[in-house]
Design a protein that fits this description.
Elements lengths: L1 H19 L4 H16 L6 H11 L4 H11 L5 H15 L9 H5 L3 H45 L1
Helix pairs in contact: 2-3, 2-4, 2-7, 3-4, 5-7
Length: 155
């Protein structure tokens, strides 16, 4: 229990440090949005690498991007994100969400694998756009409000 508490304290400290950094509120909110967007995509093994690369290219806060990615897409939330990706992707592609049978796993075909991947990716793109947009707006509001309060305390 003590380990979980100290872990959460470290995360809270990092979030405060990011909010207090010299980056603009828009850049910090953009970093958070990037992490949540990438976290919605079904590319689990590559999420950190892609998040860091895009943070460098877009000149965003790398720690903020990876931290938001890890808070959004982790072992606890990943099954729910994948389920949402699949349901949304099925809806957008006009497909009936099908449950896989055990035989599908014993003899996988490229057709089945590509259909599932396409469904997950389309759903992940849509979910990512929506969630990252919401994350951006919330983060921007919280950061600007927090900085205004800090400025008032300094005066």
């Amino acid at each position: 229990m003590k380990t979980a508490k100290s872990f959460l304290i470290k995360i809270a400290e990092r979030i405060k440090n990011i909010a207090r950094s010299d980056s603009t509120p828009e850049k910090i909110a953009g970093s958070i949005a990037l992490g949540t967007f990438i976290g919605s995509l079904p590319i689990t093994g590559f999420q950190n690498l892609i998040t860091i690369l895009l943070s460098v290219i877009l000149r965003l806060n790398k720690i903020g991007s990876v931290l938001s990615l890890e808070m959004y897409s982790n072992l606890v939330t990943l099954p729910f994100i994948c389920y949402a990706d699949f349901r949304i992707g099925s809806f957008l592609l006009g497909r009936q969400p099908e449950l896989l049978k055990w035989t599908d796993f014993r003899h996988p075909s490229w057709k089945i694998v590509s259909k599932i991947a396409e469904t997950l990716f389309i759903g992940g793109l849509f979910l990512g756009i929506v969630v990252s947009g919401i994350a951006y707006l919330i983060a921007l509001k919280l950061i600007t409000t927090s900085r205004k309060k800090m400025r008032k305390k300094q005066i």
